[in-house]
Records
---
Amino acid sequence: MKRILLLSDTHGYIDEQILKHVSWSDEVWHAGDIGALEVTDRIKELKPLRAVYGNIDDSTARSEFPLDNRFEVEGVAVWMTHIGGYPGRYDARVRDDLRQNPPRIFISGHSHILKVMPDKKLNLIHMNPGAIGIHGFHKVRTMLRFVLDNGQIKNLEVIEYPRK
């Protein structure tokens, strides 16, 4: 069993509210637009981190984190990228690979809009945790937490904070 905290679009912002949930987790996954490596360094001081870079991230972040991160945790195949689209509207860069080798969970960020939705054609769950940072058009800061246990996704929770 692994407790996962999924966040995206920090844009250089991290606070005690985020870190409280980092402490709850066994692993933290960051779906890009980190903004400043101080964010990921702070998370890595507390928990293991899997991350991808986003479109606003500089060459330093791009040298530390990949564009795509494919991995398996607790028998669940995961593909995380920053710009990935949604079921029925996947980004052209990932569309063919998704069809040929779909993961169980496909994660993207970028939109600042929290969405969790099934793709029945590809038999996967799409997750976008929204944005937990304070920069962008979103009105509410969001992230997701859930448990992976023996091939199952359990106890999915949305975490919301007002934007400061």
---
Amino acid sequence: MMAAPTVFVIDDDAAVRTALERLFRGAGWPVRTFASAEEFLQQDLDRARGCLVADVHLGRMSGLELHAKLGARADPMPVILTSGVDDVNMEREAFRLGAIAFFRKPFEASDLLDAVRRALAPEGVA
């Protein structure tokens, strides 16, 4: 039996990581949190199943840079990006890279949960 898909959360704000972890666990998903893109990339991602919810502004490597890097994988992980900055060009770039969704903080928890459900749904089921 295959393990349930995991929601990977990357945000440099510990309070945001904790809130998102509680939200996703409450919805029944396994969650792993990281403070940086570099910390996330140190994991064995070859067998990782799930989706990524990442802030755009992370420090040395941005969420957009991470998304581009993950997009180069043979089996890219669905990505949802968040940002506290209202920047339409950044949002356009996120969607150009293939993001499932882009949310400006603060956002509705139900909207984020819906986006994660879409990202984790088997192909053709939404």
